[in-house]
Amino acid sequence: VQLVESGGGSVQAGGSLRLSCAASGSIFTLNAWGWYRQAPGKQRELVAAITSGGRTSYGDFVKGRFAISIDNSKNTVYLQMNSLKPEDTAVYFCNAALYSDPLGDGGDYWGQGTQVTVSS
C-alpha cells in the first residue's frame, strides 16, 4: 500500500492550500484517514481525521479553518486549509487505517509528508 501526498507549498498568512493524499495498492477497505503535522522540534500532532462513513474530528487549533473530506471512489483524502497562519508551518502527513484483504490483514500506513510553509 502506498500513500502519495500532494498540494503542499508556500503561502502568505491568510492564504489557502488544499492537500491531497491518494492510496494505492492492495486495499480491501479504507476505515479511516487522518492528517497529522510535525513542526521542527515538536511532536507530531493530529490535524484532522475522518472515517469512511464521514465522521470527522479536528485538532483544537484548527478552530473551523480546515476541512477534511474523502472521495471513497478514488481512495483519496483531502485537507482544505483556509486562513493559514505562520504557526501552521509544518510537514503534513496523511495516515490511512485499512484492511488489505477480507481476512482483516492491514494496518496503519503513512505518506511521505508534504511541506507547508506560511509566511507572515
Structure description:
The mean pLDDT is 95. The chain has 120 residues and is mainly β. The protein contains no helices and eleven strands. Strands 2, 4, 5, 6, 9, 10 and 11 form a seven-stranded mixed sheet that branches. The radius of gyration is 14 Å and the shape is elongated.
**What is the share of helical residues?**
under 10%
Order of helices and strands: EEEEEEEEEEE
Largest sheet: 7 strands, mixed
Average of pLDDT? 95
Determine the number of helices (DSSP H or I, runs of at least 4 residues).
0
Instruction: Please give the alpha-carbon distance between the first and last residues.
Output: 37 Å
> What proportion of the residues form beta strands (DSSP E)?
over 45%
Radius of gyration: 14 Å
Low-pLDDT parts are none
Secondary-structure class: mainly beta
Q: What is the molecular shape? A: elongated
Count of strand segments: 11
Give me a quick take on this structure.
This protein is an all-beta fold and 120 residues long.
List keywords for this structure.
mainly beta, 4-stranded antiparallel sheet, elongated, 7-stranded mixed sheet, 120 residues
Secondary structure elements and pairings:
Layout: E1 2-6, E2 9-12, E3 17-24, E4 29-38, E5 45-51, E6 56-58, E7 66-71, E8 76-81, E9 90-99, E10 106-110, E11 114-119
Parallel strand pairs: 2-11
Antiparallel strand pairs: 1-3, 3-8, 4-5, 4-9, 5-6, 7-8, 9-10, 9-11
